[in-house]
Amino acid sequence: MRLIVIVLCVLVIGAAFSAISQAPPQPAGPEYTKDGLLNFPKDYRQWVFLSSGLGMTYGPAGNTDGAGNPRFDNVFVNPAAYQSFLKTGTWPDKTVFVLEVRRSQSKVSINNGGRVQGELLALEVEVKDASRFPTKWAFFDFSDTFQAKAIPATAGCYSCHREHGAVDNTFVQFYPTLNDVAKVKGTLRGNQ
Amino acid sequence: MRLIVIVLCVLVIGAAFSAISQAPPQPAGPEYTKDGLLNFPKDYRQWVFLSSGLGMTYGPAGNTDGAGNPRFDNVFVNPAAYQSFLKTGTWPDKTVFVLEVRRSQSKVSINNGGRVQGELLALEVEVKDASRFPTKWAFFDFSDTFQAKAIPATAGCYSCHREHGAVDNTFVQFYPTLNDVAKVKGTLRGNQ
Question: Measured between CA atoms, how close is A131 to chain B, in angstroms?
Answer without folding.
Answer: 24
